[in-house]
User: What shape does this take?
Amino acid sequence: MQNENIRLEDLLSKTKSVQSDVGNINSVAIIGAGVMGQGIAHTIAAAGMDVLIIEKDAEHLQKSKEDLAESIDREIKRWAMTKSEKKSILGRIKWELSLNSVNEYDLIIEAVDEDFNLKQLIFMELDSIAKKDTIFVSNTSTLSLTKLAETTSRPEKMIGMHFLHPVPKIPMVELVKCLHTSNRTVELVKAFAAKIGKTPVEVYEYPGFVTTRAIVPLLNEAMYILLEGVATAPDIDTAMRLGYNFQYGPLEMADMMGLDEVLAWMETLWKTLGEPRYRACPILRKLVRERKLGKKTGEGFYKYDENGKIIPEIIVA
Ligand SMILES: NC(=O)c1ccc[n+]([C@@H]2O[C@H](COP(=O)([O-])OP(=O)(O)OC[C@H]3O[C@@H](n4cnc5c(N)ncnc54)[C@H](O)[C@@H]3O)[C@@H](O)[C@H]2O)c1
Assistant: This one.
């Protein structure tokens, strides 16, 4: 009986300490403000926390800033947000070009391109600047968090938060535990996910986790259907949208995600799992070679106008 009491007390004090630590996560630094970094920043700032965004150069920083403001403007047009909400969200976000001030932030989320060497360099640099107890999060979709963790002096504080696009609207985040992630890190990040309104799903590190591994073969198959001339891109998307009650067709979805990212995920899945179903369709390679990367460059399987809407009559592939 006494043992049970002690265990209950331990449990309560652990829960309290996790709660108070999460209470202390009031500021988050995000590295990389592309499709994902912008959505993550928007979500965290909307939850009332301060955000620092770091981009690689002035040109990308300016473009990301404009894109984020435009995406919020679209929400205002749809009556989903007010101008004063926009002001307070953007007012909580600071922008910089160097990692130097990340030591002032409680949590760091990396959301740069899906390139292991790039991510590794960033985590090595962050490790030397960030506070000792800061948790490192990566938004990678397919890469090994264990290998990334091993390049830092705090492997037990490395975890994946696999947010999906569009981040402010997707209510779920995969929490990816690597070999070294401590239970405490999992608990803290789980509570942080709840604080920003996301339902966490715990998964173990494995290429593509649950969501990327399951969706990528579907996207690729749709591209082969297009390549083999079975149907046009809009007809493939309409069939899948209406036929299966999907919110987006697979080709629109690939364009939204960014075709360079989709190709990078397929290359990792193909290399690590060796299954033919992860062999990227030649159309995807061709579009990426031509830098037609989808919505973010204005052209992919479809062409887009300046508001990000598909131009119906012009189909690229
Ligand atoms: N696109 C999706 O649907 C999606 C979904 C889930 C996870 N992810 C993952 O999120 C990560 C980012 O993907 P994305 O789609 O946002 O890519 P993106 O190409 O849209 O953005 C990447 C950003 O990182 C910036 N960057 C590159 N090097 C940098 C550096 N050294 N310092 C600071 N910024 C740097 C780039 O300028 C760019 O703005 C990837 O790991 C990807 O696998 C993407």
